[in-house]
Amino acid sequence: LLKSMNRKHSRVGTFLGPPSGNLVGCVIRHKWREDSGSLSYWKGTVLEQIAALPALYLIKYDAADCVYGIELHKDERVQDLEIVSDASGKPVEHMFENGDGSKDKWKGLVLAKAPVMHPCFYITYEKDPVLYMYQLMDDYRSGDLCLLLSSRVNKHPYTYMEPGEVAESLLGQLVEHSNSEDGSKRLGQVIYQVEAKPSVYFIKFQDDYHIYVYDLVKA
After folding, report:
1. Residue 136, φ and ψ in degrees, nearest 5
2. In angstroms, rounded to a whole number, what is the distance separating the alpha carbons of residues 199 and 109?
3. Other CB atoms closer than 10 Å to residue 205's CB: what's the count?
4. Which fold has domain 156-219?
5. CA-CA distance, 142 to 130, in Å (whole number)?
6. Is residue 118 within 8 Å of 125, Cβ to Cβ?
């Protein structure tokens, strides 16, 4: 089912690196050895790690419509397991249902896995460059989320700051945001650089408790 925009949006204010060994959101590939000895090759996306049985992962394979439950690190039939990539740094299109029942597609950028709530990802959107958190793999499994090719999104869809060259690291630096409509200015500080997308930073403005996400590459 599609989710309510107002009900599901969670804005967060603190960020740590993703936990090591967390496969949720990763694209994987491996060989599968049948009891007969024959080998087949599989590629898919890890949707969830089952809390009651941590060795068990839910996986949506590219060549199948159903979701499989496999103990990736214990099942001897899984061979040459390889992590191809994860969702971090990927542009996406996210489907939301509004209060009146209408549906909207929001283009966004997956930033990183949440450090404590392992099924969740940090994400931001073109329409609202605030930091959000979602269980994206649930939406991917239900068809409400799809990965986009880079050619289908703007080169720098999150650039709202004044153009300027990016230093090697902007962490800790003060920045000023100018509103082109009313000329007002806001002072903020760069608090985090996104590892999967080094040109993207988190900004905390002095007059706002939300965390904003900006691409600081020169437009």
Report:
1. -65, -30
2. 13
3. 16
4. SH3 type barrels. (2.30.30)
5. 24
6. no
Q: Taking Cα atoms as reference points, which of 133, 134, 128 lies closest to residue 208?
A: 128
Q: Which two tokens stand for residue 155?
A: 């080169």
C-alpha torsion angle, residues 145, 146, 147, 148 (rounded to 10): -120
**65: three-class secondary structure by DSSP:** coil
| 0.85 surpassed by pTM | no
Rounded CA separation 70/45 (Å)? 12
Written as tens digits, the pLDDT of the chain (219 aa) is: 334 333 344 444 333 333 335 788 888 999 999 988 899 999 998 988 888 898 999 999 988 888 999 999 999 999 999 888 777 888 989 999 888 888 899 999 999 888 777 678 899 999 899 999 988 888 887 788 887 865 444 444 443 334 344 445 788 888 888 888 888 888 999 998 888 788 888 999 988 889 999 887 643
Distance CA 45, CA 87 (A): 9
CB 79 within 8 A of CB 33: yes
Is residue 72 within 8 A of residue 85, CB to CB? The reply is: no
Spatial CA neighbour of 89 closest among 66, 65, 113, 53: 113
Q: What is the phi/psi pair of residue 205, to 5°? A: -85, 150
